[in-house]
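Inverse folding, one chain.
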């Protein structure tokens, strides 16, 4: 499963005065995740902000999104993790531009596993669950 990343923010961030243009990010608090740097997304959308290291850093993606929900700044969210907050209106997506993350999800098993039938059932179930999430 490929993973898509994009900026998300609380609709109440800065009392609802959300950035309108991508260049406005230079004047915003960016929330950082230790394994999801902003640079690849910024490069993909053609935005040069230098190395945006201002703002708090998180090692846990859940804590990162919680901080964004509280209005502490703008996070680079992974669709699979941010979708529930987006659906509930706790977060909004700033722009339609997204980047396919290099960290995809895979299900792997040994080819000689005696549980191939069970693995196949699980694989089909998992694909169905992922399809429900949608892009």
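Residues assigned per position:
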């Amino acid at each position: 499963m490929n993973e898509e990343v994009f900026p998300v923010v609380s609709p109440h961030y800065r009392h609802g005065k959300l950035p309108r243009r991508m260049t406005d990010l230079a004047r915003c608090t960016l929330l950082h995740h230790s394994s999801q740097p902003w640079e690849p997304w910024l490069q993909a959308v053609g935005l040069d902000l230098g190395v945006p290291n201002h703002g708090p850093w998180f090692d846990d993606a859940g804590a990162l999104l919680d901080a964004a929900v509280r209005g502490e700044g703008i996070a680079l969210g992974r669709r699979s993790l941010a979708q529930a907050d987006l659906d509930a209106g706790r977060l909004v997506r700033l722009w339609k531009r997204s980047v396919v993350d290099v960290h995809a999800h895979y299900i792997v098993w040994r080819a000689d596993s005696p549980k191939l039938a069970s693995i196949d059932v699980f694989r089909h179930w998992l694909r169905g669950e992922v399809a429900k999430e949608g892009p």
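The domain at 3-101 is CATH 3.40.190.10 (D-Maltodextrin-Binding Protein; domain 2). The longest strand covers residues 3-9.
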